[in-house]
């Protein structure tokens, strides 16, 4: 398995919405979605955009969108679905909560990194501590009460310094942050999940 190395903006155009895979540019007029609209990439993208999509196609696109938002592989998402299906709560909600509680997503949501890709990178380089213990696995599942901090080396990284210098926006309800220290205050709730995701279609896809 290899990660997608082509321009990330193509993924946003393919899914027809902003996935916020890059820092900064997604919120400006430079974003291709803003300039060209939600037209699929490629020579015949505009023509494909008018095709009628089947029920399976809709389910597939929603599943692909979720994978791209959280920057994970198919096998990882399928394994999380199997875990979610065993829970008594709604499968879609449990699945999204499992994704939200990945360490790379928590670091991004705490605004300690400008994107999930950047968060994954600083984690793999050993710059993230959970309860003062170095964790290098982006898929580590954070739990309520755990404290996330940046290493001393991370504080000197220009990209990290830049994001920390930015004005902090409102955090999700399950997270707290003071300076460069974040805390898992609880479990992610429905209102904290990406609003553009229709989890019902994803559950239908994996339940075929």
| Strand line-up in the sheet with most strands | 2-1-3-5-4
Instruction: Quote the beta fraction.
Output: 5-15%
Helix content: 40-55%
CATH superfamily of the domain at 103-186: RNA-binding S4 domain
Q: Helix-strand pattern, N to C? A: HHHHHHHHEEEHEEH
Tally of contiguous helical segments: 10
By CATH, the topology of the domain at 103-186 is Structural Genomics Hypothetical 15.5 Kd Protein In mrcA-pckA Intergenic Region, Chain A
Q: Classify the secondary structure makeup into a structural class.
A: alpha+beta
Question: TL;DR of this structure?
Answer:
42% of the residues lie in helices and 8% in strands. With 208 residues, the chain is of the alpha+beta class.
Please describe the topology of this protein.
Blueprint: H1 8-15, H2 32-36, H3 45-48, H4 55-70, H5 74-85, H6 91-100, H7 103-109, H8 116-124, E1 128-130, E2 133-134, E3 147-150, H9 158-165, E4 175-178, E5 181-184, H10 199-206
Antiparallel strand pairs: 1-2, 1-3, 3-5, 4-5
Helix pairs in contact: 4-10, 5-6, 6-10, 7-8
What do these coordinates show?
The structure is a single chain. 42% of the residues lie in helices and 8% in strands. It has 208 residues and is of the alpha+beta class. Among the domains are: 52 residues, Ribosomal Protein S4 Delta 41, Chain A, domain 1 (Orthogonal Bundle), CATH 1.10.1050; 84 residues, Structural Genomics Hypothetical 15.5 Kd Protein In mrcA-pckA Intergenic Region, Chain A (Roll), CATH 3.10.290. It has a 5-stranded antiparallel sheet, covered by helices on one side. Strand 1 and strand 2 form a beta hairpin. The chain is globular, with a radius of gyration of 18 Å. The model has no long low-confidence stretch (mean pLDDT 86).
